[in-house]
Structure formats: structure tokens, C-alpha cells
Amino acid sequence: MHIDLTPLTFVLFLLGLLTGMYSAVVGGGAILLVPVFSLMGTPLAVAIATMRLGAVFQQLVATAAFWKEGKIAWKPAAWITAICVPGAYLGARLAVHLDPHMLSYVVAVLMFILLGVVLCFDRGRLRKRPAIRYAWPILIVFALVLGFYGGFYGAGFSTLLMLAFIYIGGFGILESSANASLAAFVMSAVASVVFVGAGDVDWQLFLPVTAGGVIGAWLGVESAVKFGGKWVHALLLIVLAGSIVRLILFP
């Protein structure tokens, strides 16, 4: 496969590096990448497919980095990941045929509510604490729905799942980020099987963005572990606020 090295290739690499650094920790990479690809004239289905395949490698690196630091709660993370899989496959099959813009406003409203929730709790409440009552049934239903959404569009998948682990499951902020990375990796892999099979991936976009993304993912996780929950909390607020603006103004 021949890839032309142009100034745009370098810009795409830097874009992947930037989004990889924050999306590996708090999600939200698709909210920036999909509209950028679309502005470049890429069909929406191709933009989503290219971003989703890139997320496989980015989240694999993030999961490995969190594993190295001992941050993944394997049993609950594996269960929630497995529950996301069927929905991810069905959502990706639907995305090949339908326009996902219809979900943008719904996700924006949901993130607005979640932003309020995060602002209402100080950083101390983001440490590990007891799960809410009936946490597992709620998490299972949430994972089923979120898996479908992740395969269909995926913008904010990791962010929403991370917040579910925090406020429903009672996990700490770094554990929640690590658990969500594992689920995002598997969900993206399942969805990408459908997208690659449909021939929707733009390899000229995929390679430089993904190369930057995997480097950014490792740097992002290392920074999160080094600076702790305070850094992740601030980053989460920024991503939530930016996601709301982007989804409402540019669905």
C-alpha cells in the first residue's frame, strides 16, 4: 500500500497525537475526528469507520498501559465488555446504512446532564466508594445500550462508560478510565470487522492518525497515572463541555 507523505500527513499525525492523549483517558476522540474527516470531504460512514478502526489500536495501547500500572479491575471490566459486544456488532451493521447524525442531539443532552453531575461532586467523590443499589443490573442495561451506540457512532462512548463505572459502580476515576479503555478496545474491534468488510476505511487517513494516536494514548495514560485523579477530573470536564458544544452546534 502506497501512502503519500505530504504536509497534510504530518497534520493528521499531530491530530491523532492530540486526540490520543485525551481520548485514551476520558474518551471523546470521535467527537473531534469525525467532523474533521467530514470537513476534508470524507463521507460520514467512511469517517466513522476510519476513526473506529484507529480506536482499536489506540485503546489497545491505553489498555496495555493501564494494565502495566495495575489499574484495570478485570472481572467487572470483562463482564461489561462482553455485554457491549452484541450491541457493537448490530450498531456497526446499522451504521453502514444509516446516517448517525440523528443521535448527536440526544448524546449532547445526555452529556450536559453528566457535566452537571460531575460539577456537583468534588474530586474527592471521584475516589473509589460503595456502588449504588442494584448497580450491576443498571450497568448491564447501560452496557447493552451503550454497546449499540458505540458500534453505530461511538462519540463519547468511553466517556459515558467511564462515568457509569464511577457513579453507578463506585470505582475510582483511574480504575473507571482503565475499565472503559478495555471495553472501548473490544467494542471498536468488533465494529471494525463490519466496517472493514464493507470497504469503508480510508487508509490514507487511518495510518497517520493512528500512528499519532497510539503514541498519544501511551503518553495520556502515563500522565493520568503520574498526576492522578485531579488531572483526569479537569480533563473530563473539558472534554464533556467541548463535546456538548460540538454536538449541538455541528451535529
Write the topology of this structure.
Elements: H1 7-26, H2 29-39, H3 44-68, H4 74-95, H5 104-120, H6 135-152, H7 157-167, H8 173-197, H9 203-227, H10 229-249
Can you characterise this structure?
- The protein has 251 residues and is mostly helical.
- It is 78% helix and 0% strand.
- It has helices at residues 7-26, 29-39, 44-68, 74-95, 104-120, 135-152, 157-167, 173-197, 203-227, 229-249.
- Helix 5 (104-120) runs antiparallel to helix 10.
- The protein is globular.
- The mean pLDDT is 82.
Comma- or semicolon-separated keywords:
single chain; 251 residues; mainly alpha; 10 helices; 78% helix; 0% strand
Which regions contain 5 or more consecutive residues with pLDDT less than 50?
A: none
Strand content: under 5%
Helix content: over 70%
Mean pLDDT: 82
- What sort of overall outline do the alpha carbons produce when their principal axes are compared? globular
What's the short story on this structure?
By secondary structure, the chain is an all-alpha fold. The chain has one domain (7-249). The chain contains 10 helices and no strands.
